[in-house]
Amino acid sequence: MPRPVDFWFDFASTYSYLSAMRIEAEAEKRGVLVNWRPFLLGPIFTAQGWNTSPFAIYPAKGRNMWRDMQRRADKYGLAFHRPDADQMAAFPSHSVLAGRCGLVALDEDWGKKFCRSVFEAQFAHAADIADPVTIGDLIDAAGGVSQTVLFSAHARGTKDMLRANVEEAKSLGIFGAPSFTVDGELFWGDDRLEDALDWAQR
Amino acid sequence: MPRPVDFWFDFASTYSYLSAMRIEAEAEKRGVLVNWRPFLLGPIFTAQGWNTSPFAIYPAKGRNMWRDMQRRADKYGLAFHRPDADQMAAFPSHSVLAGRCGLVALDEDWGKKFCRSVFEAQFAHAADIADPVTIGDLIDAAGGVSQTVLFSAHARGTKDMLRANVEEAKSLGIFGAPSFTVDGELFWGDDRLEDALDWAQR
Q: A5-200, what's its fold?
């Protein structure tokens, strides 16, 4: 019986988009269950002394990431919109609202669909995922009721749960996204997705 | 006719070990020629404001790297010795001497063999590659004459050539190792080795 895999992602994370679109098909091949765990990279980066994404701090690293994302999206057959200069200045997105709504949605059977749609809106269609109207439309399209979900997203319990996910991520040694954990074994990066799922089968 | 691939590596770089051991077999499958290009990460990290490897600066990133290296080495059937605490304190190695000898050796038909043996000495057998005696033994074992190579390694021309490689790496946008370039297209990381070789065939 394969063990479940926790899939840790931040809605603002480029490589998390690739994993969000790929993980269920790869997991199904292996009979592995995936728990989707939204968290926030912001507090983790702050603890490392960064005030934004390393892709924004280190230009060469950033340039490579955008080019690599385009190549990888092509390879996986995923749509990808490389941000223009204005959009690039707004990278990374504020993902707190999406993260909170993701937590609420993932209690419902349309939750994973909603999460994928948030990533697609951002990275394939250049939508602003910090905008409650955008998020509301995505909730409705995925099968939820936006008014209810947005209300629950702002409840104390939801905020606390997202904070608790950040703390749990830290305690697992997570320092980037996407990450995957299997009984405490940590895998970092979309390019380790298959390794993590294989590990769950051992 | 596939284009040649430049393989950029620093002898102190853990993931460069994996690529050094794998690249010729993967390239041969595809009929791709590989130019081995030793360079130094030190000056590139300094320009990013780091005084050592990011794996040493960011503990969570470092812990993950050593664990991931073990898993990847197992996957590829490569020997790997995880450094003990003392060895960890000496990470990353001083790789200037190895880099200079590598440059000299790569003009000879035993050059790639020598480069692989330096990586193995360090990451499979915990040898100190900053030690000229270690490097000399590896030169002799690979088929060279250590006295001649060590002499040439200290020649002005060799030192300049290693510096020129660093400058060329920078101008190509290289910020880490291993990296692979195909006509200006940059790929970073052992996990992009196959992508780079595939790209050379397009």
A: Glutaredoxin (3.40.30)
